[in-house]
Design goal:
Rossmann fold, six-stranded parallel β-sheet, globular, DNA-binding response regulator, Sig_transdc_resp-reg_receiver, DNA-binding, Sig_transdc_resp-reg_C-effctor
Length: about 200
């Protein structure tokens, strides 16, 4: 079974890769961020994507959305340190097969991967209950603009990154600020991040 492991923290990535390799049934390819993972997904074939959520370039959820749209046969398991309702809900909505916290025991991770590869869904019941919480008001364009704003990028930089006009960026950020009842783009990004919507 070929697994693509996307994790930006080198120590965590190395530990997960070593754990999976010890099982003897997985061939693991490592990606240091979301962009590298996307290139590997486009250029190679995998049975499963095991991904962190918060990574530079693309998030684990954005990778899961890409997989759902372009290579639906690939199974996806998300591992994260954040048990935010927004993350869990978005992961479930884009068809993620497993959602685990990084502090789960290693045997639980291996069991979850095997279950997902066999067509079952593995989401901690407590996390699944959290997903029923707040509804994410942001659309994808607002979310991407807000994420780049949270990284300190200017309106011009965001426009360049997203290949859209500066006025369009201002509209997306303004909509996000209004939807989140925030005072400015930084406040909106903070609220969205706390909820797991970024």
């Amino acid at each position: 079974m070929k697994i693509l492991l996307a994790e930006d923290q080198a120590m965590v990535r190395g530990a997960l890769s070593a754990l999976l390799s010890l099982c003897g049934q997985y061939q693991v390819t490592e990606a240091k961020d979301g962009e590298q993972a996307l290139q590997l997904l486009k250029n190679d074939s995998f049975d499963l994507l095991l991904s962190d959520i918060e990574m530079p370039g693309r998030t684990g959820i954005e990778l899961a959305q890409w997989v759902a749209e372009n290579q639906p046969k690939i199974k996806v398991v998300i591992v994260t340190t954040f048990s935010r309702a927004g993350y869990i809900k978005r992961a479930i909505e884009c068809g993620v097969g497993g959602f685990l916290l990084k502090d789960a025991p290693s045997e639980e991770l291996v069991a979850a991967i095997n279950s997902v590869l066999n067509g079952r869904r593995v989401i901690d019941p407590e996390l699944a209950m959290m997903a029923i919480g707040d509804k994410d008001p942001l659309n994808d364009k607002e979310r991407r603009s807000l994420r780049l704003a949270a990284e300190g990028k200017s309106t011009a930089d965001i426009a360049t990154s997203l290949f859209i006009a500066e006025g369009t960026v201002r509209n997306y950020l303004s909509e996000a600020i209004n939807k989140l009842n925030a005072s400015n783009r930084i406040d909106a990004a903070r609220i969205a991040q706390q909820k797991g919507w970024l």
